[in-house]
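Batch queue: ligand-bound targets. Current item pairs a single chain with fe (ii) ion. No template structures supplied; prediction is de novo from sequence plus SMILES. Inputs echoed for audit trail.
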Amino acid sequence: MNAPLAAGQTSRMIDLHCHILPGVDDGPTSLNESLKLARFFVADGITVVTATPHCHSSIHLLRSDILPHVSAFNRELKAAGIPLIVLPGSEIQAFNSAAYRREFEADVFCHLGDSRTFTLLEFSWSEELFPADSVELIKWIRERNMRPIVAHPERHHYFRQRPELLQPLVDAGAWIQITVDSLLGNFGPEAKVFAERFLRTHRDAILASDAHNTKRCSGLSAGYAWVTEHLGSERSQDLLDRAEMVRMSLMAEQATIPTIQSKAG
Ligand SMILES: [Fe+2]
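Prediction returned. Tokens below.
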């Protein structure tokens, strides 16, 4: 049974960025830990998550790697009686636009929900690897009718120091994913200030946990509560409505594409 929900909180929250699959990347190392995280999510009011293991230079997980893990974990959730739906996805790092485009066109990436609607895009932690043509890359993705969601820019020192790098990405159509732990100050004051400022000045944002385990996860309800307290209930509701729109879109697409089970074959 879910925990009581705070005012304004929905019982159908979706987390679009989390590392919940056991033994796949730098998330939980055991099935028990993943199930513990799943129970935490359910108690938090989350019903759907997109599992987003890393796809970067050292952990380069593609849809053929990810889909079987998602299928297997959904079976474990069902067996454990945990009412959480896990959809496929990945956190795809773009440090070389040409390489990104090549893999995108080869259809090897696992976008959110394994669909062609939303994709979670991360930039390198190193400014030297931030592509000079990142705006063109965002436009290129948008031309393919997909919405890139840029993962946690508030945690990247170069976006904080040079916000002029981020604004053109937003202008080109990217949405921005803010991590709840940033708002709560768990990644330091600079990330917190940047995240708050962004949410005050931009509508195109999504809250996500970027959970890696039960210790590195504050859930989503704490994030929406923080926004309600500091930015008002209207802003919090707007963020919830946007996430709900994504949830409905991804769930609707699950019915139109082959099942995760059959795709994992
Ligand atoms: Fe992540």
